[in-house]
Amino acid sequence: MGLSVIILAAGQGKRMKSDLPKVLQPLAGRALLAHVIEAAKKLSPTAIHVVYGHGGEQVRAAFAHENIQWALQAEQKGTGHAVMQAMPTVSAADQVLVLYGDVPLIEPATLRLLRDASDEQTLSLLSVRLPDPTGYGRVLRDNAGSVYRIVEQKDATRKELSVNEVNTGLVCAPAAALNTWLSALSNDNAQGEYYLTDIVAMAVRQGFKVSAVAAPTIPEVLGINDKRQLAEVEAHYRQARASALMDAGVTLIDPTRLDVRGEVQVGRDVIIEPNVTLSGNVVLGHRVQIGAGCLLTNVTVGDDTIIHPYCVLQDAAVGSQCVIGPYARLRPGTELAQAAHVGNFVELKNTRLGEGSKANHLTYLGDAVVGARVNVGAGTITCNYDGVNKWRTVIEDGAFIGSGSMLVAPVSVGKGATIGAGTTLTRSAPPSALTLERAKQQTLPRWSRPVKVSKEEKAEREAKSLNPVTPAGGNTGE
Ligand code: UD1
Ligand code: CA
Questions:
Q1: How far is the CA of 152 from the centre of ligand 2 (A)?
Q2: Which of 328, 324, 327, 366 is nearest to 349 (CA)?
Q3: Confidence of residue 450 (pLDDT cuts 50, 70, 90)
């Protein structure tokens, strides 16, 4: 049987007090709904349907790149009604897995358990036992322990409310049967809604089996309604990702202060200081050290490289034995060869720094190719942009760029060349020679420093200049 996934995402999320629809609120840097879609995709479904409502166009636009069947639920009349909106485009031969767009930590492995527990004659639901079940639908079982009904908090008797096994809302059922149940739903209940949960009792009446699958962990079934819950779930996410890295052998100085928001591969004996964020695809070699406050996005780092505190690296490839920062910025297209050094307040963009080369202080290298063993002095700038075009700078092996040099691209510096400090280089510098461009230094022996003028004196001078004395015998311009 094929699998169709229906994600309920029409909820408005009033308690977020936000202009952003609830399912677009970010968790670990991505929309809540993105997490759910990603988990659903791992099951290779034939289709993913999303039921949307409030803020609909914004939600659709955010997922324009995904292959999604959108179903509009214009008015929120309950979870059963929401599922009904998607059913017309679901194949009657499929199993249907219903997920919530605001339950983002759900694990693909759990979804597989739920799917595998359902077949042509079995409806499966994901339940969990909570110390405080308030607000949730309760899973009611008969004396033999079989589930026979779900009752919502608002419709439950005192005795039913004492049950602490709750419905997470996630269910799986064959489409054909689901269609018949949905069409029989009524909204005759405390909330006047079409409850999806009522299909459980219907299934039992028809001789279906109902299988309650216990969620392996509580965080993965937590729903999000407000910013507090958003932060709480983010903390669970953070903790899970940090734990996984520690299991892989990474030393985290404080696991509560590491944010992993993508896929991270690590070598042995990696050390990460507090307040680091790793996003996208990050690969860290053996013995890499990352200082406090660094942000790495889509970065590869070779063995034994040290990244000092407060560096920002994005779309960069860093070789082994490099030393970076503190306060360095590697922008997209940066490549550091082995043992390159990039120091404080140095920015690199679309630049390759060769083996053993150093740019240690206050420098901008953009669109540059720098060879091996080059020393780029403090305050060097590649003037790569003429206001319209970006131009390249080439610095060959062993060159020495004196401090405060402006390299006006396109320009090149030959092998072993030396550029004198303060040079504005507008033509290429030949290899092995000293090239410098400098205004002649001069000293003015008769110059003296200005002296402080008193207030009275100043007022007097100003008065004079406002009422210029007419030169004797002169006329005033008639
Ligand atoms: C629902 C379940 C309850 C369960 C709880 C778990 C029903 C009747 N009750 O309760 O048993 O314990 O979830 O959190 O199913 N949605 C729509 N359209 C609607 C209504 C809801 O898309 O008309 C979406 C919401 O955006 C949300 C999900 O369905 O993602 C659940 O809705 P919510 O209102 O939170 O369900 P509860 O009433 O809390
Ligand atoms: Ca809810």
A1: 11
A2: 366
A3: very high
For residue 229, the ligand closest to its alpha carbon is: 2
Both 269 and 194 in a single domain? no
Best CA proximity match to 102, nearest among 211, 230, 224: 224
* CATH number, residue 423: 2.160.10.10
H/E stretch holding 369 = strand 368-370
Q: How far is the CA of 31 from the centre of ligand 2 (A)?
A: 17
Surrounding ion ligand 2 within 5 Å at CB are 223
Q: Note down the domain range covering 160.
A: 3-221
**Ligand 1 proximal residues by C-beta, below 6 Å:** 8-11, 51, 73, 76-79, 81-82, 100-102, 136-137, 150, 152, 166-169, 195-197, 223
Both 182 and 321 in one domain: the answer is: no
The pLDDT value recorded for residue 477 is 43
Q: Is 54 a catalytic residue?
A: no
Distance 22 CA to ligand 1 centre (A): 13
Domain count, the chain: 2
pLDDT at 214 over 80: yes
**Of 411, 328, 420, 430, residue with least CA distance to 377:** 420
Taking the CA of residue 103 as reference, the ligand 1 atom at the shortest distance is: 30
Residue 129's DSSP bridge partners are 165
